Amino acid sequence: MSEHETASFPDGFLWGAATAAYQVEGAAREDGRSPSIWDTFSRVPGKVRDGDTGDIAVDHYHRWRDDVRLMAELDLNAYRFSVSWPRVQPTGRGPAARRGLDFYSALVDELLAHGIRPMLTLYHWDLPQELETAGGWPERETARRFADYAHLVARALGDRVELWTTLNEPWCSAFLGYGAGVHAPGRTDQVAALRAAHHLNLAHGLGAEALRAALPASARLSVALNPSAVRARSRSAEDLDAQRRVDALSTRIFTGPMLHGAYPDDLIADTAGLTDWSFVRDGDPAVIKHPLDALGVNYYTPSVVSAATDNRPPRDDGHGGGEHNPWPGADDVAFHQPPGARTAMDWSVDPSGLYDLLMRFSREAPGLPLMVTENGAAFDDEPDPEGAVHDPDRIAYLHGHLNAVHRAIGDGADVRGYFLWSLMDNFEWSYGYSKRFGAVHVDYATQARTPKSSAYWYARLARTSQLLPEVPGMYDAPDANDATDVPGAGEVSEKPA
């Protein structure tokens, strides 16, 4: 398809947006919710920019009805959200907290009433602090606790939620949380990071078993990974080996056991100087390889790597750096910034990485449907004097990446849906409130929501499943002829030159 032609997506394609509980809900101490590791971590001086926390976030816990109405006005047909484990099971053990489950039950009912399919993620990084105090993800018991939690949520919501995701980006949980220390819980132990990765894998398998036991046969199970599109800086043997090692640690450490029932031999060899992997017990890989109904792919930017030299550049792995290396067994790999456009996160804009990943998994797991469960960009979005928020750079980013999705579908990838990250600006983990990923602008002082130009652009796409060619002057405006119920419909603005 030419870039000057309209791209049509398949019937039934899911057009959604995504959020995570700690990033949007707030109400950190209400209705029995206990602290998560992010409540604790965000209070450690210097860990989160400006000392920000998710105590209030964007107050979704109290504003969810308005937020669902906004989703409907923007023509979304799906919404991916996460359940806060400490809100539903405050200690990580025992019975569910009724008030916590009631919140998610009401949210699901409201979504369905507006024709929006809920996609529920069980774990998006907010481990109950009591479980971390007991050892956290490096301990096997945490995986068992996750399975019990999954069963509680499935029994409460399984009659209405069809789409279930066990984990979101376990790489970040394991390697940023326990290796680099730049995410909660802030530990810096490479062996603990590898142990955490295995027990997250095991939690996925045990959680999937628990879900299957409690859910109707029609339910669909997935996991959302953030695999790296890793490029070698050159074709030298050394740089290609660096690419292989990072691919093993970023992607195959999860897809190996989840899709194929075994950890990659080269990963075991690369990390032999750190651990003998005795924390993997007989039968674990078979549990982890639980049949999936879809594989979620989160993608933002590719990685460019080389073998390190004495004059290696500063490590920039796309996750904020830090003093401690999140790549066990790959200390002598250097990360490089490719040329070209960048987002406010200083991440390169490269849609080809998304295409490559979709085609890779289409080949690696034929017959397994794929979904883009996160994709988006942060830019410095501020209202103009009239209160409108124009974000042509985000529209260009989304257009390029959705073109890549459409191209992958045309080349045989079975992609069933796309979830924009994020529905609205929110707490961006260690960056606090300094980075804005939302299609909807949030004034953090007043909690006012203002759809950006990209929200109107995405609403048109969700309504029509037609990706129009990039034509200046068409980016920011909703279609006044068929979007009269979209906020701001009919207000046409030109794309800045």
Automatic annotation (TrEMBL):
Keyword Hydrolase (UniProt): yes
PROSITE patterns: GLYCOSYL_HYDROL_F1_2
Reaction catalysis annotation: Hydrolysis of terminal, non-reducing beta-D-glucosyl residues with release of beta-D-glucose
Region (Disordered): 306-342, 472-497
Bias kind Basic and acidic residues: ranges: 312-322
Domain of life: Bacteria
EC number: 3.2.1.21
Pfam families: Glyco_hydro_1
Alphabetically ordered keywords of this record: Carbohydrate metabolism, Cellulose degradation, Glycosidase, Hydrolase, Polysaccharide degradation
Family: Belongs to the glycosyl hydrolase 1 family.
NCBIfam families reported in the protein's UniProt record: BGL (TIGR03356)
Protein name: Beta-glucosidase
Species for this entry: Streptomyces varsoviensis
Lineage, top ranks: Bacteria, Bacillati, Actinomycetota, Actinomycetes, Kitasatosporales
